[in-house]
Amino acid sequence: MEEIKINTDIIKLDSFLKWANLVQQGSEAKFFIKSGDIKVNNEVELRRGKKLKKGDIIEFKGKNYKIV
């Protein structure tokens, strides 16, 4: 599991994907989120504005990322 450090208390899911360099653009993040390809804490998340906090685990393309 890769740990991704954020500089704020919360970050939105679409912003996290860009911050972690998992996608290049917001439109790409929106596509993956709306397609149901992303899990947050083992549950499919369809809201790109979902607020993430430290300790949350994001699953994307078979890899897990923990926010620290």
Q: What features would you describe in this structure?
A:
The protein is built from 2 helices and 7 strands; from the N terminus they run E-E-H-H-E-E-E-E-E. It has 68 residues and is an alpha+beta fold. The protein has one domain (2-67): RNA-binding S4 domain (Structural Genomics Hypothetical 15.5 Kd Protein In mrcA-pckA Intergenic Region, Chain A). Strands 1-7-6-3-4 form a 5-stranded mixed β-sheet, with no helix packed on it. Strands 2-5 form a two-stranded antiparallel sheet. Helix 1 packs across helix 2. InterPro entries: RNA-bd_S4-rel_YaaA, S4_RNA-bd_sf. This is Ribosome-associated protein.
Q: What's the N-to-C terminus distance?
A: 12 Å
In the CATH classification, which architecture applies? Roll
Helices, by number, come to 2
Instruction: Give the domain tally.
Output: 1
CATH class: Alpha Beta
Please report which band the strand proportion falls in: under 5%, 5-15%, 15-25%, 25-35%, 35-45% or over 45%: 25-35%
Percent in helix: 10-25%
Strand tally: 7
Q: What is the H/E order?
A: EEHHEEEEE
Task: Flag low-confidence runs.
Answer: none
- What is the CA-atom radius of gyration, in angstroms? 10 Å
Q: Structural class of the helix and strand makeup? A: alpha+beta
What shape does the CA trace take? globular
Say what the CATH topology is.
Structural Genomics Hypothetical 15.5 Kd Protein In mrcA-pckA Intergenic Region, Chain A
Largest sheet: 5 strands, mixed
Mean pLDDT value: 95
Across the major sheet, the strand order is 1-7-6-3-4
CATH homologous superfamily identity? RNA-binding S4 domain
Protein name: Ribosome-associated protein
GO molecular function, one term: RNA binding
InterPro entries: RNA-bd_S4-rel_YaaA, S4_RNA-bd_sf
Pfam families: S4_2
